[in-house]
Amino acid sequence: MKYAALVYYQERLIEAMSEQEWRDLNQECLAGVERLTDQGHFLAGQALQPVESAASVRLRDGEVLISDGPFAETKEQLAGFYLLEARDLNEAVQLASRIPPARFGTTEVRPVRELPPRDTGAES
């Protein structure tokens, strides 16, 4: 089953790192992805740019509303995600506990909801 591991941390903690600390953290993340890939658990993932580069889009009564930044004011910001393959939630949580930035914030683990195939209206 697929699980999304959403990585959150306080950007100010990362911004306060020295260049070497930041480089070391990135190398640790790359090594972790390599390990997860070798074990057959890593499907995809990306780090995200800081929240000041974000935009939130809402559709209300047919009108598109766009605002700068993330949707909610929170203490921790979404920093990236890992898409993992795991037997169950327990294994996904165990895998997520090894994601290096977890020590700076929170990693939310959530099962991926598969959408049903698109109904094309064609009859068999």
From TrEMBL:
InterPro entries: Dimeric_a/b-barrel (IPR011008), YCII (IPR005545). Residues 1-114 form the YCII-related domain. SUPFAM superfamilies: Dimeric alpha+beta barrel. It comes from the Bacteria. Belongs to the YciI family. This is Uncharacterized conserved protein. It comes from Billgrantia gudaonensis.
